[in-house]
Amino acid sequence: MTDPLVRLRHDLHRHPDLSGNEGPTARRITAFLHECGPARIVDGLGGHGVAAIFEGPEDGLTVMFRAELDALPIQERGDIFHRSGREGVAHLCGHDGHMAILAGLARNLADDPPRAGRVILLFQPAEETGEGARAVLANPRFTPLRPDWAFALHNMPGLALGHLAVAAGPAACASVGLRLRLNGREAHAAQPETGQSPAPVLQQLLAWVQQFQPGQDGRLATLCHLNMGQPAFGIAPAQAELWITLRTITDPALDAFERELRGLTETLARQYRLDVRISRHDHFNASINDPAAAAIVARAAAKLDMPPGDFTLPMRASEDFGAFSATARTALFFLGAGLDVPSLHNPDYDFPDALIAPAVRLFRTILDECQQV
Ligand SMILES: [Zn+2]
Ligand SMILES: [Zn+2]
């Protein structure tokens, strides 16, 4: 194997890091970037984030491309040559491939620098927890780098290899996880009326979740974890815990959906005299594509004869890239990883190396298109 980008991808795959702990991966990337001679490298962005800045000879707009540094806390099952060397941690979302593509763009810019303006290649931490993009944006070191345009791709199983899906408007859903902890009073199972059991509240919360199944009105509620009492027939329990993930197409819709579930939980808890504690986890903004940014991606793909793919947008899963639309005209788009491959986050998933070279060409063409707008 001779392609250095494929070698880099396999090397990153062998050495995965979890969200927030991407130091070793960031160091590998930084070493590669140094060889490409950017004007500057900024590190420590929102944790272990790294940005390489390439500058053109003339003033102009700033265009950012983003890849993600983190892997997942899932044991890899596939028996591939470049298998993860870390127990219980693996690149099963293809972020290793996204990094190799951005590294390829860095090499391309070293050979053929931008004609004007700046190009930022951002290797962002903690995408899988939904925290990384917001942490980068909140970091004062990122303020002088804020882009005018920002682009990211995600590889997508179920979409034909190398086919592209992009559209103006919603690209990936907003989501949030709510952990609901209920606490009442334990009783003997023979006298449940003397205690305060969370069971009736659980029943009603489960019925509420059941109303929001796929294909309804864009709101999706998923019960992810449930626990009540102890495994003992003699006890009417006091405690229960539910983890529910809420998903919507827009951020305001998610706020309203979350208020509805919190309101219902608090009302039921009062009615059944239970204490309730609610905490919020894994919040992702919706990714909404700017029409002009999406049009640039579509034009670049057409120039390269990349076929448009058959894929329903928005993607139901979330992507924290949407946070950058607060500061730039953004587009998140999807590149097919093949029809007959395991899904993202599956223990057998491995990013297809065949996507690296066409994706580098696509990013470069997007950059050239931005400079003509
Ligand atoms: Zn993922
Ligand atoms: Zn991902």
Characterise this structure.
The chain has helices spanning 4-14, 23-34, 95-111, 132-138, 199-210, 251-271, 291-303, 356-370; strands spanning 40-45, 49-55, 58-68, 116-124, 149-157, 164-165, 169-172, 174-183, 187-188, 220-228, 235-236, 239-248, 275-284, 287-289, 329-338. With 373 residues, it is α+β, with helices and mostly antiparallel strands. The protein has two domains: 4-170 and 286-370, 3-Layer(aba) Sandwich (Aminopeptidase), CATH 3.40.630; 174-283, 2-Layer Sandwich (Alpha-Beta Plaits), CATH 3.30.70. The chain has a seven-stranded mixed β-sheet. The longest helix is centred in the last third of the chain and has 21 residues, at 251-271. It is elongated and about 80 Å long. Residues 68, 93, 95, 127, 154 line the site of one zinc ion.
Outline:
This protein is an alpha+beta fold and 373 residues long. Helix content is 29%, strand content 28%.
What are its keywords?
8 helices; alpha+beta; Alpha-Beta Plaits; Amidohydrolase; Aminopeptidase; single chain; 4-stranded antiparallel beta sheet
